[in-house]
Amino acid sequence: MPPKDSSPGEPTIIDVAALAGVSIRTVSRVLNHSPKVNDDTRTRIQSAIDTLNFRPSLRARAMAKGRSLLIGMVHNDRNALVLDSVQRGVGREATRRGYEVICHSVPVGDPGAATDVLDFARRSRVDGLVVMPPVSDMVGLPAALQGDHVPAVAISAVAIQGYGAVLLSRERQAAGDVARHLLDLGHRRIAMITGPQDMISAIERRAGFVEALAEADMVPMAEVEGDYSLAAGIAAARQLLAAPPAPTAIFAANDIMAAGVLKVAGERGIAVPAALSVVGFDGSIVAEMLTPSLTTVARPFGEMAEMATRQLIDLIEGQALSDMDSPALSLVPSESSAPPVSG
After folding, report:
1. What is the pLDDT of residues 295-329, one digit of tens each?
2. In this structure, are strands 249-252 and 277-279 parallel, antiparallel, or unpaired?
3. What gap in Å lies between CA 34 and CA 50, rounded to an integer?
4. Residues in domain HTH lacI-type (predicted)?
5. Residue 106 DSSP symbol
6. Is the pLDDT of residue 44 over 60?
7. Which among 29, 55, 148, 297 could bridge 174 via Cys, Cβ 3.0 to 4.6 Å?
């Protein structure tokens, strides 16, 4: 006997169809967001749904569609603030389209990372994946997903072949804007704390920053590689500020490391921005919580995740993918950057 999809007394799709005066098939089309229902009928069915407080069964809808109505989001982001915005963005579009979301953290750098993603997709029976960086940048993953017939849409700082679609996060260009901002303020002793140079996001941010400085016939006076953590920002800042001549500006490749720079500056009595300008990257809420508030590059995480999810569901449902421009990353000047006291 098939499992019941409602408890005794709960309204069913049959009740909705009867109240709206339409067929069960027509109600099903509305629940599945089909365009094959005119506006008047759709309004009448929605009114019946609201009146009866009907809640469609995910299991029943999934069986009818021959899919699970589950979307997987795979990531390896230790920054909870960034991850929260991404999850909310994926969830907004998934809910709007009648899907649920399962999140999975992938051990990037592990030799079995691609297999881990495939195993997750198989056991969870998701209809497709939204793949976040740095997972999206793993060599061989797009081909592995294609081989397993798993629809996937990625977000990445570079174009990658093999995914159903790739939403670009133009981080090289944005990091160049940071360099130009500091140059325009008059800084010439500029240092950088990069992200880990085995990650595409970190490589792109460093490249954009260095290229923009080169346009002004300059190079960073010093670079220290970090791992995007607070501890790395603190250690790098201590190294950069240890001996004269100290930089008048430091670009940290994410807001968390920039927070470490501000912490060290405070410990050493270095006034920000009077004696040291500090710029981060991400535009997370951390930038507003710090004192002084942080000049940073705002990445619209939620909007990007929402757009990627829209592309994925269109791909799953066999719809033509819409042309969507990736949201722009933008430099947001704030209290932590100003002209140097002396060049």
Report:
1. 999 999 899 999 999 999 999 988 877 666 788 99
2. parallel
3. 19
4. 11-65
5. -
6. yes
7. 297
Q: Does pLDDT of 1 surpass 60?
A: no
- Maximum Cα–Cα distance across the chain: 81
| Residue given tokens 């809910």 in the structure block | 95
> What is the rounded CA–CA span in Å between residue 197 and residue 204?
9
CATH number for the domain whose boundaries are 171-299: 3.40.50.2300
Residue 102 backbone phi and psi in degrees, to 5: -120, 130
Q: Contact 104/72 with Cβ under 8 angstroms?
A: yes
Which residue is associated with the tokens 């807001």?
255
Residue 299 structure tokens? 């990445």
Tokens of 304: 């990007």
pLDDT digits (tens, 9 = 90+) for 190-199: 999 999 999 9
Q: Where does CATH 3.40.50.2300 sit in the chain?
A: 70-169+301-327, 171-299
Cβ neighbors of 270 (< 8 A, separation 6 or more) are 241, 246, 264, 276
Q: What is the CATH number of domain 70-169+301-327?
A: 3.40.50.2300
State whether residue 100 is helix, strand or coil: strand
Residue for token pair 């998701």: 126
**Cβ contact 45:26 at 8 Å:** yes
Out of 1.10.260.40, 3.30.70.260, 3.30.1490.20, 3.30.70.100, select the CATH number for domain 13-62.
Answer: 1.10.260.40
Is the separation of the CB atoms in 275 and 255 below 8 Å? no
Q: How far apart are CA 257 and CA 78, in angstroms?
A: 13
Distance CA 17, CA 253 (A): 56
User: How far is Cα 175 from Cα 194, in angstroms, rounded to an integer?
Assistant: 11
Location of structure tokens 């982001």 = 77
Residues pairing with 129 in the sheet: 72, 152
Q: Are 261 and 193 in contact (CB under 8 A)?
A: yes
In the chain, list all ranges with CATH 1.10.260.40: 13-62
In angstroms, the CA 154 to CA 165 distance is 6
